[in-house]
Design a protein that fits this description.
32% helix, 195 residues, 2 domains, Oxidized Rhodanese, domain 1, two-stranded antiparallel ribbon, globular, 5-stranded parallel β-sheet, alpha/beta
């Protein structure tokens, strides 16, 4: 089931009162989950950003969208990608393993994406379970990418609070998996285009 959240509602505040609040919420990464009461008019740009960053589909729906011209952007680390990924996926890690194995931000993420995908590219963004992809969608929307869809459950599944699986991932949905990237789809090859 495709989910789409829109900012609408009425809290008795004017759009001028809510803009600083939206800016603050975006700064702390809460914009994709913003829900306001009925009747509140928001500036068009804020409404568009909230709508774009909240498109979410399951892995099954994502597989169908690949047939409609979307590309799968896998934002997991290179080792995760190399252990298995959706067939045909492109790899640009949002995070990389740093000293001691701790994950740290990939400073080249945005530059590599921009060098390889136009702002109007139709991108399905996935990771292991959904956290990194949601963040990547938000970051890309903030710089003008407009055809973004977050893949719920990513490759391995979205956990529920009890430790089970709330949304099946790509692998457990029986969808095509590869361990070798297609020519030009590995992070090393994509990064070369960004240099």
């Amino acid at each position: 089931m495709r989910e789409r959240f829109r900012c609408t509602g009425g809290l008795g505040a004017s759009s001028g009162d809510i803009v600083p609040l939206l800016l603050l919420m975006a700064a702390v990464s809460l914009l994709p989950v913003l829900v306001l009461a009925p009747g509140l008019a928001l500036p068009a740009a804020a409404d568009k950003l909230a709508t774009m960053s909240a498109n979410r589909v399951t892995s099954i729906e994502a597989a169908e969208m690949l047939e409609q011209g979307y590309e799968y952007l896998d934002v997991r680390s290179r080792p995760e990608f190399d252990q298995g990924h959706p067939s045909g996926a492109w790899n640009v890690p949002l995070l990389n393993a740093g000293p001691g194995g701790r994950m740290q931000a990939n400073a080249d993420f945005m530059a590599v994406v921009k060098a390889n995908f136009a702002p109007d590219a139709k991108l399905l963004v996935g990771c292991k379970s959904g956290g990194r992809s949601a963040r990547a969608v938000q970051m890309l929307a903030e710089v003008g990418y407009s055809e973004l869809v977050d893949v719920r459950g990513g490759f391995s599944g979205e956990p529920d609070p009890a430790g089970g699986v709330a949304v099946a991932g790509w692998k457990d949905s029986g969808l095509p998996v590869s361990e070798q990237p297609e020519a030009g789809h590995s992070y090393a090859e994509l990064r070369e285009k960004g240099d």
